[in-house]
Amino acid sequence: MKAAALIVAAGRGERLGSDTPKQYRRLRGRPVLSWSVEAVAAAGIEQIVIAIAPEHAELCRNATKGGPAVRIVEGGASRTASVRAGLAAIADAEAILIHDAARPGLSPSTVTALLAALASADGAAPALPVADSLRRIDADRRVIGEVERDGLMRVQTPQAFRADMLRAAYAALGDQVMSDDLAVVRAGGGRCVLILGDPRLMKLTYAEDFAVLDRLMGERVT
Ligand code: CTP
Ligand code: MG
């Protein structure tokens, strides 16, 4: 299946709060965004689109300079809007992989496994089991219930889709807010599966996440 990749990088990193937005900060000597670009290219994907905030154009050019060819488009005010903008710029793909720039610990083998999963599904995502026990709380943080951990998974990106199903699901979405693209495709009637995720696909959200991921990526074997 001919595949394209959309890397969404149009966020402002408000929870991290650093001068340089997290997707353009350096991790293990390279811009965060460049790790994901290299990984999808190494998996054989040639069409790579990156959705960015317009004021980050220069940062993005620098972060992708000298690497695989990419097309840069303007994202939107929400992640969903950035995905829509990126999808509009993708042509000629039977499969589309959507990935958060804020998850630089991507291995080419994960990309390959996700695309392979599309042989029998409309959408596929990496996910990890939940280690801690879970509680439901009220507005005052009083415990009002226990949530069974078995049968729950923590979903990561990249998420891979059959392009026709993905486009139809986004067209049918309207104003609804969904947690991720897999939820959009499932709401559109698509069959979705999870593959075993990777701790290195953790999302950079807070300052301390950089040190954790730096260490995990140092242990990289694939
Ligand atoms: N994203 C995007 N367009 C937006 C918002 C987010 O493309 N309008 C992207 C981010 O760049 C990131 C991914 O979606 O790669 C996940 O978002 P998140 O981790 O929330 O990043 P930010 O929105 O940048 O961070 P924050 O929420 O702390 O501001
Ligand atoms: Mg955000």
UniProtKB/TrEMBL annotation:
EC assignment: 2.7.7.60, 4.6.1.12
The protein's annotated pathway: Isoprenoid biosynthesis; isopentenyl diphosphate biosynthesis via DXP pathway; isopentenyl diphosphate from 1-deoxy-D-xylulose 5-phosphate: step 4/6; Isoprenoid biosynthesis; isopentenyl diphosphate biosynthesis via DXP pathway; isopentenyl diphosphate from 1-deoxy-D-xylulose 5-phosphate: step 2/6
Site entry (Positions MEP for the nucleophilic attack), positions: R149, K203
Region (2-C-methyl-D-erythritol 4-phosphate cytidylyltransferase): 1-222
Highest taxon of source: Bacteria
Keyword terms, alphabetized: Isoprene biosynthesis, Lyase, Metal-binding, Multifunctional enzyme, Nucleotidyltransferase, Transferase
Entry GO MF terms: 2-C-methyl-D-erythritol 2,4-cyclodiphosphate synthase activity; 2-C-methyl-D-erythritol 4-phosphate cytidylyltransferase activity; metal ion binding
Names of required cofactors: a divalent metal cation
Reaction catalyzed: 2-C-methyl-D-erythritol 4-phosphate + CTP + H(+) = 4-CDP-2-C-methyl-D-erythritol + diphosphate; 4-CDP-2-C-methyl-D-erythritol 2-phosphate = 2-C-methyl-D-erythritol 2,4-cyclic diphosphate + CMP
UniProt record, GO biological process: isopentenyl diphosphate biosynthetic process, methylerythritol 4-phosphate pathway; terpenoid biosynthetic process
Residues carrying the site annotation Transition state stabilizer: R15, K22
Function noted in UniProt: Bifunctional enzyme that catalyzes the formation of 4-diphosphocytidyl-2-C-methyl-D-erythritol from CTP and 2-C-methyl-D-erythritol 4-phosphate (MEP) (IspD), and catalyzes the conversion of 4-diphosphocytidyl-2-C-methyl-D-erythritol 2-phosphate (CDP-ME2P) to 2-C-methyl-D-erythritol 2,4-cyclodiphosphate (ME-CPP) with a corresponding release of cytidine 5-monophosphate (CMP) (IspF).
Family of this protein: Belongs to the IspF family. In the N-terminal section; belongs to the IspD/TarI cytidylyltransferase family. IspD subfamily.
Name of the protein in its database record: Bifunctional enzyme IspD/IspF
Encoding gene per record: ispDF
Portion of the full-length sequence here: 1 to 222 of 379
